């Protein structure tokens, strides 16, 4: 059995044999799990990001236009500028008194 003492700051040095057995390195975090009459020290293992497996599944894009074109292609739509939905006019976004957008823009607006 290994033991260690608690410092005045509440710190404990984990013996090297225990660190090696648990695979702990400098900066690693540990957790204390209390079960009935015992306390268990174990490394905190960050759960893997579930989306990591999709990394690289889709092509890398260099611009927003490439993304829009790829999405249009996936949806089997016409490319932008050939019958696409109208954009919201920039005049609508200007600061000043609030006014309602024309219904045709609200109904057909898509963010780009």
Mean pLDDT: 76
Proportion in helices? 25-40%
Distance between the termini: 64 Å
Going across the major beta sheet, what is the strand order?
1-2
Decide which structural class fits the backbone.
Answer: alpha+beta
Strand content: 5-15%
- The tally of strands reads 2
Uncertain ranges: none
**Quick one: biggest sheet?**
2 strands, antiparallel
**Overall 3D geometry?**
rod-shaped
Radius of gyration: 29 Å
Write out key terms for the chains shown.
single chain, 112 residues, alpha+beta, two-stranded antiparallel ribbon, 4 helices
Characterize the structure shown.
The chain is α+β, with helices and mostly antiparallel strands and 112 residues long. It has a two-stranded antiparallel sheet. The protein has helices at 16-22, 64-75, 90-93, 103-108; strands at 30-35, 38-43. It folds into 2 domains: 12-45, no CATH class; 56-108, no CATH class. The termini are far apart. The longest helix has 12 residues, at 64-75.
Short description:
The protein is of the alpha+beta class. The protein is built from four helices and two strands, in the order αββααα.
């Amino acid at each position: 059995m290994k033991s260690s003492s608690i410092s005045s700051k509440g710190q404990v040095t984990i013996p090297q044999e225990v660190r090696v057995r648990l695979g702990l390195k400098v900066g690693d975090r540990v957790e204390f799990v209390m079960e009935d009459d015992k306390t268990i020290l174990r490394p905190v293992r960050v759960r893997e990001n579930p989306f990591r497996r999709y990394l690289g599944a889709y092509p890398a894009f260099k611009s927003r236009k490439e993304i829009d074109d790829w999405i249009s292609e996936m949806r089997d739509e016409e490319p932008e500028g050939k019958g696409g939905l109208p954009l919201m006019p920039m005049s609508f976004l200007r600061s000043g008194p609030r006014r309602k957008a024309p219904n045709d823009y609200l109904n057909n607006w898509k963010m780009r």
